[in-house]
Amino acid sequence: MSIKDKEKYRLFSTSDDAKIPIFFKPWYLDIVCLKGAWDVNIYEDGNEGIAGFLVFYTTKKYGRKGIIMPPLTPYSGVWLCI
């Protein structure tokens, strides 16, 4: 049974090994993104560990779906766990 990327990311972000900025934390994204409209794409290394991820906020503007910067977030995007 496979876990969705968002659930995997939530588990990863709570581990002690995860040294990610506050703007990438799931609890922060839940607060600033309207209706929890954020998602994440995960890049895994060969050992089922997370090597990097892309966090994004989806919205609908002028009748079209788009990806924009979450409100109150100075930066977002790709993060590599090296």
Structural features, described:
- With 82 residues, this protein is α+β, with helices and mostly antiparallel strands.
- It has helices at residues 5-14, 26-32, and strands at residues 38-44, 50-61, 64-68, 77-80.
- 21% of the residues lie in helices and 34% in strands.
- Strands 1, 2, 3 and 4 form a four-stranded antiparallel β-sheet that branches.
- The protein starts with a helix and ends with a strand.
- The mean pLDDT is 88.
Distinct helical segment count: 2
Question: Number of domains in the coordinates?
Answer: 1
In round numbers, the mean pLDDT is 88
Largest sheet geometry: 4 strands, antiparallel
Shape, per Cα inertia axes: globular
Using DSSP, what is the number of strands? 4
Distance between the termini: 27 Å
H and E string: HHEEEE
Share in helix = 10-25%
- Poorly predicted runs are none
Class per helix and strand makeup: alpha+beta
Estimated share of beta-strand residues: 25-35%
* Rg for CA atoms: 13 Å
Q: Gist?
A:
With 82 residues, the chain is α+β, with helices and mostly antiparallel strands. It is 21% helix and 34% strand.
What attributes does this structure have?
34% strand; 2 helices; alpha+beta; four-stranded antiparallel sheet; single chain; 82 residues; globular; 21% helix
